[in-house]
Amino acid sequence: MQDNINSIVQTKDGSHTLFSKKYNQHYHNPDDGAINEALTKHILPTFKYHENKEELNILDICFGIGYNTFTTLFLVKKEKLNKKINIFSPELDANLVRSLENFNFPKEFDEIKHIIKEVAKNKKYEDEDIKIEVNIGDAREYIKTLEKESFDIVYQDAFSSEVNTELWTKEYFDDI
Questions:
Q1: pTM value?
Q2: Residue 134, helix vs strand vs coil
Q3: C-alpha distances in angstroms, 34 versus 131, 140, 142, 175?
C-alpha cells in the first residue's frame, strides 16, 4: 500500500508501519517496532494496573493502522486473559481504515485476521468477548459525545505535539 499520504516501512521487530507524508512522521518508531511500541507504551502498563478487572473499556485515540487495538487482542488471546474488551476509537482517515483489509500485518495477528477484515469493511466488530467500534471523524468532537468517566484506559496515540497540535491541548485533555 502506497499513496500520496503514507508509505510502508518495516520496523525492527519485523512488523510494518507507515510513514505519514502529511505529518512527516512514522506511525510507530521503526527502531522499536509497531508491536513492541504498542505493548510497552500502552498495553502492558495499563493492563497491569487493571489486572483484576474482568471487563475493560478502552478509548484508542487515533486508530491509525490499528496496532494498539489489534495488539491488545493479541495479548489477551496469547496470555489467555479472561477479559471482555470494548474498544472505541476515533480516526480521521476512512481510506486508511478500509486499506487495513490488505495491510501486511505480522504473523502474531493471524488468529485475528477475521476481526481486522471486519473492522476494515464495517468499522466495527463484536462477539461475546470483544467489541470494537471505529468512528470516522475528528477525535476532539468524538470524545465530547462519550459518557464521562466511561473508560478504564485511554491510548493517546496521536502524532507528536509538534505536528498534531490540536490533539495535545489542555482543552482536549480536559475533555478526555
A1: 0.85
A2: strand
A3: 22, 25, 25, 28
Grid coordinates given for 47: 493492563
Residue 6 pairs in a beta bridge with 20
Residue 98 to residues 62, 63, 120, 158: CA-CA distances in angstroms? 15, 12, 4, 19
Residue-level pLDDT, tens digit, the chain, 176 residues: 334 467 787 888 888 887 778 777 777 777 888 888 889 888 999 999 999 999 999 999 989 899 999 999 999 999 999 999 999 999 989 999 999 999 999 999 999 999 999 999 999 999 999 999 999 999 889 988 988 788 999 898 766 557 666 766 788 767 77
For residues 155 and 42, the answer to whether their CB atoms sit within 8 Å is: yes
Contacts of 71 (CB under 8 A, 6+ apart): 34, 35, 38, 39, 43, 108
Who's near 92: CB < 8 A, 6+ residues apart? 62, 136, 137, 138, 139
By the 10 Å C-beta count (0-12 exposed, 13-18 middle, 19+ buried), 99 is classed as middle
Residue 117: exposed, middle, or buried by beta-carbon count in 10 A (0-12, 13-18, 19+)? middle
